[in-house]
Amino acid sequence: MESSVILTEIEPGLFEIRFDRAERMNALSVAMVNELKHAVDEVTRRSGRVLLIRGSGRAFCAGADLKERKGMDLEARMAHNAGIREALLAIENARFVTIAVLNGTALGGGLELALACDLRIASTGVSVGLTESRVGAFPGAGGTQRLPRIVGRSRALHMMLLGEPVTSEYALSIGLVNELTAPEELDARAREMGALLLTRSAPALAEIKRLVAQGMEMPLDDALMLETAALPAILASADYAEGLAAFEQKRAPRFVEPA
């Protein structure tokens, strides 16, 4: 059986996961969720620095495969949801940078997947939404928690309670999407962004991710202490020494430390 999750190394350190189930709008079946988790683990094993995640056809990902889920009992439905949550946590907690490349529709669990990524870039004219209320459910793979942290409580409630998709243009205006680009330019821009991130220090990027994620859950004074505690390892690192030397010599730095 062919995989619906295709992992490619575009250049050393830059990986892409492409969902290849266009006939089902890349809906997340049980098998596909397992493949996604395996692909993310493989990027970690191969010391990936940046991971792009995109769909095939007209969708990024339409969320959980509801046709498959209809035939499940409660235990199987809970297991399916748990698998999605586990895959999304692996993406969110990765030390490498993750970018959701929204080539098309991102609904339900598909948008929840994008929310677990560090950055989101989208084609113009794409629809995104947490639409679970339309089928009598709620976003159960982290959407009720991640969306308010990104766009604020009121806007998140508006999207989730109504369950209506919004345009990628609106998503950009509320900070849900970081960048918009024409559809024919999306892949080039995603790879350009990935290549730029490869020029940054991997430990520095990993610390930025950790400090933001942990610090947002703390009072400001505690978060500032967390930041201060992280400084010695970075300021004493070979990458920082290289960065200072490159700045003095007016050249691009050549960072070498793994994340």
Features:
259 residues; 2-enoyl-CoA Hydratase, Chain A, domain 1; 2 domains; six-stranded mixed beta sheet; 11 helices; globular
What topology emerges from the helices and strands here?
Elements: E1 5-11, E2 14-19, H1 30-45, E3 50-54, E4 59-61, H2 66-70, H3 74-93, E5 97-102, E6 105-107, H4 109-116, E7 119-123, E8 127-129, H5 143-151, H6 153-162, E9 166-167, H7 168-173, E10 179-181, H8 186-198, H9 202-215, H10 220-235, H11 238-249
Parallel strand pairs: 2-3, 3-5, 4-6, 5-7, 6-8, 7-10
Antiparallel strand pairs: 1-2, 8-9
Strand order of the largest sheet: 1-2-3-5-7-10
Report the CATH architecture of the largest domain.
Answer: Alpha-Beta Complex
Average pLDDT for all residues: 97
Number of domains: 2
For the termini, the CA-CA separation is 35 Å
Number of strands: 10
Q: Which of globular, elongated, flat, extended, rod-shaped describes the shape?
A: globular
